[in-house]
Structure prediction request, 653 residues.
Amino acid sequence: MSATTTDPPADRAEPRRSLAGAPLAIEVEGLTRRFADYTALDAVDVTIREGEFFSLLGPSGCGKTTLLRIIGGLDHADAGVVRIGGQDVRGIPAHKRPVNTVFQSYALFPHLSVRDNVAFGLRMKRVPEPDRGRRVERALELVQIGALAGRKPAQLSGGQKQRVALARALVNEPKVLLLDEPLGALDLKLRKELQVELLSLQRRLGITFVFVTHDQEEALVMSDRVAVMRAGTIEQLGEVHQLYERPRNRFVGQFLGSVNLLEGTVQASSPEELALASPVGTLRAVRRPGDPGATGKLTLAIRPEKVRLLPDFGKGENRFECLVEQVIYTGNASHYHLRCGQQRLTAEAMNDAPAVRGLQPGQRVAVELPPASLIVLED
Amino acid sequence: MRSSAPADGPRAPWWLAAMAWGGLLFLHFPIAVVALYAFNTEESAFSFPPKGFTLRWFAAAAARQDVLAAIGLSARVALLATLGALLLGTLAALALARRPFPGKDAVTLVFILPIALPGIITGIALLSAFRLGEVTPGFWTIAIGHATFCVVVVYNNVVARLRRLPHSLVEASMDLGADTFQTFRRVVLPQLGTALLAGGILAFGLSFDEIIVTTFTAGHEKTLPLWLLNQLGRPRDVPVTNVVALTVMLVTAAPIVAAWWLTRGTEDVAGASK
Prediction:
């Protein structure tokens, strides 16, 4: 992640997987859901491809859980269509839909053993023995809780309950698995462990996962594509690296990681680049297809790890001098809080980079913002 | 401040304990008297000290046709009223526990009235209704009258339990393919088990014991409380009356203690439902 020895390759990050062209598992069109005093979903459109790990990411109240529940049939929409596997599911009750849900509170049936909990869905579908027993055993093995099959939920830890909830949903071989912040109640270490497990499970089974979370790191680790939501609408949807490298607006930029914001006025522009008069001087930025128009007031953003700290001033564009106000050590890297006249910036650099060795608060340092790393924001 | 309090809290001051015990004694003294004189050899009045000890009144009571008839009637009425209360109380609780609907508060209030109002009012209301419908007072009117307020006891228990039931359990059940009825049978009902049992036992005890509403809704039949009331005008029958009263007290105390013990246990189990 060091940005001091090579040019930052903003667009060269490899995509995680490309599922473009896969059949559509879920289509949502114009979905609206209103409650008495606010609108939870406002004409939302989204399509989820078969076999993908799709995340709905956003702060509390953005509508991600409402969307998930409507897909699962646990809530109804006031307007719009939901199609699962091409079939319009409006009017089809939850118990008839080919999807299963893993709840945030696990919702295990307290009076049934682990085995009976997992077998519940198969019983409802009247799957006979020995099929039913076989499938239950396989599901228990899949999440590695075979040894606990006879226990009741009250005797399980949080992580174990989560696995049971997962097995209970997966044993029904649903077309789509809906997960509502399933790792929210677990401690950090367990959460990270299960993130990796969930990811490998999804890859192995090939089932479409729709995952709701407010934790951006979680979404980044596991998802193929992410929809970032706010106040009932999707702010941006795309593959993970796209969202990180090219956020459309401040909200997305600040929700996924952090950004430096440089506000200014456009001085000149061409289809390939623009020049912005900013508090740190004139900055040249590379323009990309799909970028917003380059006139009048504009804000550029740059990720802290892309801000280059140079050993000396030298010659180059987008360079200026800053005062180091604070250095925050985080083990393998450090955050440098800089003041450059009226502008504040945060840079992040690996601690073994020669340019930053020994850099102390109070010192001045040369800073470069590579034109290719500057992101043009919509707001 | 140094405290010499024991591990579970400071001890109550002596006068508080004395008051508590005094109140308890006051409440149970009449019952103790009845129990004592059930064994008295003398036939009439309550002279103190009791003349002697005998068990013959128990045999005498068991041989009395009117005693057996009264007990039998009370038991049958209580059983019917309890069954009706369980069915209707559960249905009402399911309807009123969650979803709001226009007039819900009013319905809830009206529902609780039979037990909230004085027995005389309920009794008169029922009698008027039966007269209006030209229904002759008898076994069924007694049972229906009892069911009317027994429903409330079951309803209270079931609604309290339902409110503690996380709705996500119902949603999970539906998500796994169970329709409404299957969800009720396999997920909700098992959770209601102890509430129904406790409510049913309390309803039975309430019905067995009831006298005021029964006075209005009975025809010529005598339930046990009515029989006992009648006996007060028969001084020669005092020992038998005492025997019957004592027996009934013991028999009805047992299920009420059982109901208390059952609902006491569920406080711990309910918390583990997450």
